[in-house]
Amino acid sequence: MPVLSVNGLSASYRKNKVLNEVRFDVQQGTLTSIVGPNGAGKSTLLKVMLELHPKLSGTVQFFGSTYSQAKSRIGYVPQRGSVDWDFPTNALDVVMMGLYGKIGWLKWPKRSHRDLAMAALDEMGMADYADRQISQLSGGQQQRVFLARALVQDADLYFLDEPLAGVDAATERAIMDTLKVLKNKGRTVMVVHHDLQTVEDYFDQVLMLNRGVIAHGKTAETFTKENIYRTYGGTLRWMEEKLG
Ligand SMILES: Nc1ncnc2c1ncn2[C@@H]1O[C@H](COP(=O)(O)OP(=O)(O)OP(=O)(O)O)[C@@H](O)[C@H]1O
Known about the structure:
Blueprint (H helix, E strand, L loop, with lengths): L3 E10 L2 E11 L4 E5 L6 H8 L7 E6 L4 H4 L3 E4 L13 H7 L2 H4 L7 H13 L15 H15 L3 E5 L7 H16 L3 E5 L6 H4 L2 E6 L1 E7 H4 L2 H8 L4 H7 L1
Parallel strand pairs: 3-7, 3-8, 5-6, 6-7
Antiparallel strand pairs: 1-2, 1-4, 8-9
The protein binds adenosine-5'-triphosphate (ATP).
């Protein structure tokens, strides 16, 4: 059984249809990049699947059940730009939020929860920043804190929206190492990704999206010149140089 099954999914913003009959299955233990040009509907796809934006039609099944039944098994790291970083909270508290599924809302976290959150911050090289207000962290540091939050959540299926955008090489490596560890533990990870040069190195599966699914499958077989052109149209002149 696929961990994620999307069928005939369509969505719009007012009259502007941005997802059209999207259909794909994702198997457990895969690391998938979602690629496509600006405005292709990648972020919207995540939001619609996670019921943050309404769908027009179609179905989405997680582990064979609905989103609300599967919620505690799903982790989401939104695009950094979409988060209100002025929210007065420190890095440790952000990570603790990933534990609410376990602690329960309005219950006081235990020492062991705090230890788990600290360990995750440490894993992302952010232990020294636990007490720092999130608004006072750099973009890459904020991204590491978000990854730590996803780690403590201990989900089975993760969605990350451009986690590598604007981070330095060390942070990029730390994030990709973390995602590979999750995959090797049998978790399933889907990542909106923009750097076409690293798709083959980083991801075993690719979902090529432009309002509908253009191609989906093993990166080695799917991420071809032809599919890249079909996905991006004429917008990628540099690809011609790269691919000859
Ligand atoms: N809140 C919104 N209200 C109206 N239109 C929106 C909204 N969010 C996105 N759109 C439009 O929907 C389309 C798909 O946007 P989406 O953010 O899903 O694309 P994307 O593939 O993630 O793009 P990018 O690579 O630029 O992040 C775009 O045309 C965008 O302008």
